[in-house]
Amino acid sequence: MAYRRGMTPTVGEVAGRLTEWLVRLMPAGDRRDALVAGLTAAFGADTDLISAAGCAAISAAAWPHARHVELFFEPGGTEPASDSPGEWPPPDPAAVRARAAGVSRVSRLDDGTGVVRIDTLDAVALAQPYVDAAFGLLRGARRLVVDLRGNGGGDPATVAWIAGWLLGDRSVKLSDVVSESGVREWWTPARPPGTALSQDAYLLVGPGTYSSGEALAYHLRARSRVTVVGVATPGAADHVLPIRLAPTVLAQVPRAYVRDAVTGGNWEGKGVVPDVPSGAADALDVALGLP
Q1: Cα distance between residue 221 and residue 218, in whole Å
Q2: Measured between alpha carbons, how far is 100 from 111 in angstroms, rounded to an integer?
Q3: Which pLDDT value is given to residue 291?
Q4: In angstroms, rounded to a whole number, what is the distance separating the alpha carbons of residues 130 and 135?
Q5: Which residues, in sequence order, are CB contacts of 286 under 8 Å at separation 6+?
Q6: How much is the pLDDT for 2?
Q7: Which residue ranges does the record assign to the Tail specific protease domain (predicted)?
Q8: 143-147 and 113-118: which strand pairing?
């Protein structure tokens, strides 16, 4: 869909551009068809100029079908609309080091419980030393608590790396990522014998557990490795790319979905539902009170 040069696009034009990209990138199926049909019906004739409110309305309409779809209004934007799929910017190694790859807590409580909090899933090449250091410190703990309540996602390779610490020394298939171009398998790495952690483990989730953060919780729970405590997660299971729909509108557009190797499904639209419900703020205390 071409835009009138120098003019602000309408809501209908932006929604139309989004549906074109959905057809181009998102794997074919009922979910894509329902998403495209819903956006077209809701906004196809909308002649209001695009704004933050219009972007929010389109995002909200997409939510029942694809929870990763999100539009961001950038009023000062000047880049032209995308002609080819975008890429995520490479991580800043200094920024990753400054946040210790999202490992914000590692502690051993008085009762012998080991607690690790991971707030993001940075690229595995940068995150691995921090993940290994954190889980290495949990050796000998009486039990484990993995806190993902603030984990907004990131690299699926880091999901596999962390899962390997908990699922055993042998390589385990976690998932297929299905796109229009094919299927990519994700496996945990094989570990040196006797190095994986085997203690009972609890995993904390909440509204801030998103995307690949949800993947880690889902894959571990599907293999009965953890007891999940907290609040159901948002339910965003797609892999996405950044696409500029207009100079002032950047979107996240699904390009693939996850299929767990055990369940054959995923958490899209449902979230990871806790085994033990609790308030998000209380989840650690609740987990520590479990036998």
Answers
A1: 5
A2: 26
A3: 87
A4: 9
A5: 229, 230, 276, 278
A6: 47
A7: 89-279
A8: parallel
Q: Identify whether the C-beta of residue 121 lies closer than 8 Å to the C-beta of residue 88.
A: no
What single-letter amino acid sits at 284?
L
The identity of residue 195, as a single letter, is T
**Burial of 83 from C-beta contacts in 10 A (0-12 / 13-18 / 19+):** exposed
Tokens 């074919």 label which residue?
28
Residue 92 makes CB contacts below 8 A (sequence gap 6+) with none
Task: Report how many helices (DSSP H) and strands (DSSP E) the chain contains, helices first.
Answer: 8, 11
Q: Are strands 201-205 and 182-187 parallel, antiparallel or unpaired?
A: unpaired
Token pair for 9: 């696009």
SS3 207: coil
pLDDT by position in tens, the chain (length 291): 444 555 789 999 999 999 999 999 999 999 999 999 999 999 999 999 999 999 999 999 999 999 999 999 999 999 999 999 888 999 999 999 999 999 999 999 999 999 999 999 999 999 999 999 999 999 999 999 999 999 999 999 999 999 999 999 999 999 999 999 999 999 999 999 999 999 999 999 999 999 999 999 999 999 999 999 999 999 999 999 999 999 999 999 999 999 999 999 999 999 999 999 999 999 999 999 998
Question: Do the beta carbons of residue 246 and residue 64 sit within 8 Å?
Answer: no
Task: Give me the residue spans of the domains in the chain.
Answer: 1-88+239-255, 99-235+270-288
Nearest 10 degrees: CA dihedral of 105, 107, 109, 115?
60
Radius of gyration of the chain (CA): 21
The answer to whether the CB of 131 falls within 8 A of the CB of 165 is yes
